[in-house]
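Tutorial, part two.
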Amino acid sequence: MSQTALNLVAISVFLMTLSVLLGPIIELSPLIGAIATASLLGFFTLDTLGWQGKGANLIVDVFAGLSEDHRSRVVRHEAGHFLVAYLLEIPITSYALNAWEAFKQGQSAGGGVQFDDQELLSELQQGSLSAQLFDRYCIVWMAGIAAETLTYERAEGGAEDRTKLKAILAQNRKSSTDAQLKERWAILQAKTLIESHLDAYQALVTAMEQRLAVSECYQILDSRIPIKSE
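Running the prediction step on this input gives:
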């Protein structure tokens, strides 16, 4: 099971145990608690085996989405990815700002900006990943963390982004120290790009909050960044 599912199972079991303990006081049948516990455990097992944890992600995201701060963080995080990918000319295919939007788009994760990764995947399969291409993707992956940090001083998201960077470095037999240095370098590069285009970034945040299409987001950036920066 995913960590999200495990956490939900632990919470569910705790609540069911509590209901059993309090059942006699509030005249609640123990059978109800047992049935509810079995149903929840069955759901999470099916979710993990059949849906790759999408159900658990949806449940968590629904509650997280009730927080305005969470929604604000997500859109600013993803706008960071979008803007830096645009500046580094990595094609963007779609974006989703919550698990439900991602589910409707057929994405396996909880959302985010999706890129055309064909060039990256091709070089990885051939075992000839160029340093320049890898650097561009590292900066894009770390751009969400950089964007969050600019607004909130620290980032809550970005675990999956860090995993991508570390996985490729591990594949090339790089140490954890190398990964940390690369991560810090990429965050700094992304932060510099976002700070250099704050007007475009803020306009993009507004556009993504309105769920404008990728093509419309591109038009907004084109109007504010007539010459793309490397």
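The beta strands are 92-96, 112-115. In part three we will examine how such features are distributed along the chain.
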